[in-house]
Amino acid sequence: MRVTNKLTALAVTRAKKPGRYADGNNLYLQIGESGSKAWLFRFMLAGKSREMGLGPVDLISLAEARDAARQCRKMLLQGIDPIDARRQERQSVRTATAKLITFKECAEKYVAAHEASWRNPKHRDQWKSTLKMYVYPVIGDVAAGNVDTGLVTKIIEPIWSTKTETAGRVRGRIEAVLDWAKVRGFRHGENPARWKGHLDHVLPKRSKLRRVRHHPALPYGDLPQFMSELRGRRGQSARARSNSLF
């Protein structure tokens, strides 16, 4: 007959010698060389011996450790490796937590990690100011994992033709932050701010955009003659222009 529940709460408290003390049902009290105490679940799976930590004694009581060991044995009866099950559960928690981190939080972490390498103070200021002006109002509070092409184009399109240079920099900065977020595990999939093979199919090339040409200012000395000619023209447009100059 297998003996179980060998340990008592008092025995766990008094035990000092390094080693492993069996409680039964695969549960052990493990005392390290430094005197630290923790619970250990030992089991066989596919002919191999495995060990799974259940937590330190100062946080997990004897009763709680026994309950945890019981849950592990139930998994083994179903052919489930309790170590793999815990790993998957922790991954699920990390994934759920990652879904909550916003683009703004990722951007702030990215800037904090890189700004020391940006020697130009103007460059550092532009990074922060463009994100604050153009990006945060649209996706600042959006989870980094939920930023998609539609949201990126919502930021870029309004300024793509009028502020082309700025728009290009904003796009690149969004791309950099989302790449950082992916490496950190805060998002998955392709980067929606990527230009080549993605946004280049949505937005016209900057080199193809017509640049706004401003008419040169009229020399001050030519103003009297210009006004005389303007007043001599017929039509409401000419009168409106002449009146607006005064």
Please characterize this protein's 3D structure:
By secondary structure, this protein is of the alpha+beta class. It folds into two domains: 9-96, Double Stranded RNA Binding Domain, CATH 3.30.160; 103-208, Tyrosine recombinase, N-terminal domain (DNA polymerase, domain 1), CATH 1.10.150.130. The protein is 49% helix and 12% strand. It has helices at residues 9-14, 62-77, 82-98, 103-114, 121-139, 149-160, 164-183, 223-232, 236-244, and strands spanning 19-24, 27-31, 37-45, 48-56. Strands 1-2-3-4 form a four-stranded antiparallel sheet, with helices on one face. Helix 4 packs across helix 7 (164-183), helix 5 packs across helix 7 and helix 6 (149-160) runs antiparallel to helix 7.
Features:
246 residues; alpha+beta; Double Stranded RNA Binding Domain; DNA polymerase, domain 1
Residues in β-strands, percent:
5-15%
Number of helices: 9
- Tell me the CATH architecture of the largest domain: Orthogonal Bundle
Which residues form runs of ≥5 with pLDDT under 50?
237-246
- Which CATH class of the largest domain? Mainly Alpha
Range of helix content: 40-55%
Rounded to the nearest angstrom, the radius of gyration is: 34 Å
Calculate the mean pLDDT score and round it.
87
Number of strands: 4
Give the count of structural domains.
2
**What structural class results from the helix and strand content?**
alpha+beta
CA-CA gap between termini: 109 Å
What is the CATH superfamily classification of the largest domain? Tyrosine recombinase, N-terminal domain
SSE arrangement, N to C: HEEEEHHHHHHHH
Strand order of the largest sheet: 1-2-3-4
The main pleated sheet reads as:
4 strands, antiparallel
